Amino acid sequence: DHVKLAHYADAACDIEYDFPMGFKELEGIHSRTDFDLKNHQQFSGKKLTYFDTELNQHYIPYVVETSIGLDRTFLMLLSEAYQEEDLSTEEKQDARVVLKLPAMLAPYKLAILPLLKKDGLPEIAKELMAECRGSFKCFYEEKDAIGKRYRRMDAIGTPFCVTIDHQTKEDGTVTIRHRDSMLQERVALKDIKQIVLNAVQY
């Protein structure tokens, strides 16, 4: 709550978020009393009162003003989603940067990753890309080891990665990896589009 108020206000408060750099204002809320409508009424000559049937009286309504910035709201979402996870074991040190955005807000919904650049795997991956990209944004990548590709997708918040491998050619299944849990499961290639759609819809 504010101690010093604008001359037209009788109450004010800020909604703040604890950013990495400390608490900062997200939204300001002010009760402007009847200052605005009273002045409009005075200078326009138009009656702006409201009649309350329960109280059987006329009064000039109060205005509650709220101000919120898109930039700072987006920064809040990024700050909340950004995490550095320690994945170390007794054998080795390991960590990952992951942007745990809600799936519906992630820039890319699905990464399509052929395990190798040969044996027909890129062709299958590109067919899936063509099937899905009309419904949501996809990212295709075939460079580097699959683990490195997973980590890159974690860092930009991609909620799902699909790996096309040799088993895909045998039985029509793929590995789908979930960003937040890193869980990997085998599902039918034909079901991938609907799985992602179910996750990203409002």
What is the element layout, followed by pairings?
Blueprint: E1 11-19, E2 22-31, H1 35-44, E3 50-52, E4 57-59, E5 64-68, H2 70-81, E6 82-86, E7 95-99, E8 110-114, H3 121-132, E9 138-140, H4 146-155, E10 160-164, H5 166-171, E11 173-178, E12 184-188, H6 192-200
Parallel strand pairs: 8-9, 8-10
Antiparallel strand pairs: 1-2, 2-5, 3-4, 6-7, 10-11, 11-12
Explained architecture:
- The protein is α+β, with helices and mostly antiparallel strands and 202 residues long.
- It folds into two domains: 11-78, no CATH class; 96-200, 3-Layer(aba) Sandwich (Rossmann fold), CATH 3.40.50.
- It contains six helices and twelve strands.
- Strand 11 and strand 12 (184-188) form a beta hairpin.
- The longest helix is centred in the middle third of the chain and has 12 residues, at 70-81.
Kindly list the characteristics that best describe this protein:
202 residues, alpha+beta, Rossmann fold, 2 domains, 5-stranded mixed beta sheet, 3-stranded antiparallel beta sheet, 6 helices, 12 strands, 29% helix, elongated
Shape: elongated
Number of domains: 2
Estimated helix fraction: 25-40%
Strand order of the largest sheet: 9-8-10-11-12
Low-confidence stretches: none
Number of strands: 12
User: Which class do the helix and strand fractions yield?
Assistant: alpha+beta
Q: Quick one: CATH superfamily of the largest domain?
A: Anticodon-binding domain
**Major sheet, described briefly?**
5 strands, mixed
CATH class annotation of the largest domain: Alpha Beta
State the CATH topology of the largest domain.
Answer: Rossmann fold
